[in-house]
Amino acid sequence: MIILILSGIIPSVIAGAIVVRSYTNRAVSLRTSNVQNQCEILSDTLESEDYVHHPDNNLINNELTFLSNIYNGRILIVDSNYNVVRDTYDLDAGKTSVSREVVSCMEGNGASSLYDADNLFIEIIMPIQRADGNIDGVLVASVSTNEINQTVSLMEKQALLIILLISIVVLVVGYFMAGILMKPFRRVTKAIEDITDGYAENAISVPDYTETQQITDAFNTMLSRVRNVDNSRNDFVSNVSHELKTPMTSMKILADSLVGQENIPVEMYQEFMADIVHEIDRENRIIGDLLDMVRMDRKAGGLSLAMVDVGGVLEQIIRRLTPIADQKGISLMLELNTKIEANIDELKLETAFQNLIENGIKYNIEGGWVRVDLRKDKNSFLVSISDSGPGIPEDQHDHIFERFYRVDKSHSSAIEGTGLGLYICQQAVLQHRGSISIYSRVGEGTTFAVRIPLNCEEE
Ligand SMILES: Nc1ncnc2c1ncn2[C@@H]1O[C@H](COP(=O)(O)OP(=O)(O)OP(=O)(O)O)[C@@H](O)[C@H]1O
Ligand SMILES: [Mg+2]
Fold first, then answer.
1. Which atom of ligand 1 is found nearest the CA of 401?
2. pTM score > 0.85 for this model?
3. Which residue from 28, 57, 140, 161 has the highest number of Cβ atoms inside 10 Å of its Cβ?
4. 368 CB near ligand 1 (under 6 Å)
5. Residue 407 burial (CB < 10 Å; 0-12/13-18/19+)?
6. What digits encode the pLDDT tens for the residues 363-387?
7. Which DSSP string do the residues of 334-382 spell out, in sequence order?
8. DSSP per-residue letters across 199-268
9. Ligand (nearest to CA of 443)
């Protein structure tokens, strides 16, 4: 509000000052040239009557008094010896006048004028010059500028009044305008407040201004993201509880049956214990996934970079996964073209590639294949993982990287998983300033292509 008032008042004050100043200048210069004209005529008369040498000329004296009266000023006539021969105020007659201007004029430098703004008068100094150029004397006329100053102070008062009026108008109009303009924004606040109580409601809309519409649109987008996160968190809790419970239940059944029986053959013990170990592994894997996710989420936990042989890392993963692939009759192929060394966080990228290759094995057909291919271009290396699996519908491509997202939920109990693998994978790739893309169609298998800079620090 203060800004509003100042923005109205400051220009008015400046404009007022400019108007008053230019009026003063103009009035003074008009008055000066007016008096100067009169003085020129007077100077000619003084010369033709040779007044300087005959200052008792009554006709001229009367005219001087008359002029002095109508201009509310004083006229001095000074002869070539700097003696004042006539003063309409009768103060300096007979005295000597040697002001700088008078001397300069007497020396033949022509007429001059000056404005004394402090004492409010204009002074005109004019030579009384003969036709042959000789100077008989000097005419000094001082004219009061009182009237001009009265007009100026009147103008100043009026300007002040106008500024005061403008301020009041700006204040009142500003107050009401602000109220009207802010109304839609208050409605936005109200709508947001209402929704925070329970955000299951519909999207909000305040279409009064483009701005309010943009705010509500942005809010709706954010709201739907929050809802998604909330939904996936709920899904996650139930998924994870289910995932964690399943191995527990199996272990309990296995252990119970051993406890409840007597004289159990050693083979049976061994078989059940192997099953229990398997379940413990499964439990471990799920917990490992969760820990990976938390670790990737923590931004502060940056990368611990080192020069790593990327092909070696992939070979290790393949060796580790071969037994699982063999169980499903899936053949794993690794194609390393050249030796590639890169400055990467080995642990994080190993987790990422293992997730992708594991997916290729998990979501595949009996007797299928998974091919891992490593290549390099100028600044980065490229790992692509292709499989002969069922593929992923195109409308799901954007979602599979979301936390806890699994493509076919009804199917998810058949194939173990928490939907965290790709999320963890993407985080690791992004932390390396790399990119991950998916090429897949239903029934045609899937390819994930990961590109990582050879030295992500230099990017
Ligand atoms: N190669 C693939 N072929 C077909 N579908 C895939 C493939 N990779 C991933 N998907 C689909 O994407 C979903 C998400 O994969 P992601 O790796 O994130 O989770 P997950 O494998 O279900 O569980 P996790 O990896 O955490 O054990 C999977 O549930 C699966 O439906
Ligand atoms: Mg996975």
1. 18
2. no
3. 140
4. no
5. middle
6. 999 999 999 999 999 999 999 999 9
7. EEE-S--EEEE-HHHHHHHHHHHHHHHHHSS-TT-EEEEEEEE-SSEEE
8. TTS-----TTSHHHHHHHHHHHHHHHHHHHHHHHHHHHHHHHHHHHHHHHHHHHHHHHHHHT-SS--HHH
9. 1
**Ligand with minimal distance to 407 CA:** 1
Separation of CA 413 and ligand 1 centre (Å): 13
Ligand 1, atom nearest to 407 Cα: 31
Domains (range + CATH), the chain: 2-151 (3.30.450.20), 210-294 (1.10.287.130), 302-453 (3.30.565.10)
Ligand 1 near 451 CB (within 6 A): no
Alpha carbon separation from 182 to 173, 189, 207, 453 (Å, rounded): 14, 11, 14, 50
* Ligand 1 close to Cβ of residue 387 (< 6 A): yes
Would you say the CB of residue 289 lies under 6 angstroms from ligand 1? Answer: yes
CB 61 within 8 A of CB 28: no
Note the pLDDT tens digit of each residue in 31-79. 899 888 988 998 999 899 888 888 888 888 898 888 888 888 899 999 9
Task: Kindly state if the Cβ of 400 falls inside 6 Å of ligand 1.
Answer: yes
Of 431, 435, 432, the C-alpha closest to 450 is 435
Q: Rounded to whole angstroms, how far apart are CA atoms 309 and 318?
A: 15
Q: Which ligand is nearest to the CA of 427?
A: 1
Task: Encode pLDDT of 221-243 as tens digits.
Answer: 988 888 888 887 787 777 678 76
359 Cβ closer than 6 Å to some ligand 1 atom = yes
**Is the beta carbon of 352 within 6 A of some atom in ligand 1?**
no
